[in-house]
Design a protein that fits this description.
about 80 residues; 4 strands
């Protein structure tokens, strides 16, 4: 993820005990928002790193830019949802 993107998060605890994190990616060209379901407690920094990692994984799978590290076809990630704002 590019460094100029800013990620802000809000979260709430669900009845199941899991934590739902809503995040906003502030980007002038392509603002996005999404949800991440966390099953274990993590700090804000760890949550943001998890979002960045999943975004990068999604980009890599879509572009398949690295021919030296072939990726298996990605399965749906039912704990991570991303939308254009």
């Amino acid at each position: 993820m590019e460094n100029q993107d800013k990620i802000s998060i809000t979260s709430k605890t669900l009845a199941s005990g899991n934590r739902q994190v809503k995040f906003f990616i502030e980007d002038k060209e392509k603002p996005q928002y999404g949800y991440l379901l966390m099953t274990e407690p993590k700090s804000v920094g760890e949550i943001i790193e998890e979002i960045k990692m999943r975004m990068e994984r999604r980009r890599s799978a879509a572009l398949n830019m690295n021919p030296f590290f072939p990726l298996q076809p990605t399965q749906d990630d039912h704990n991570f949802y991303l939308f254009s704002a």
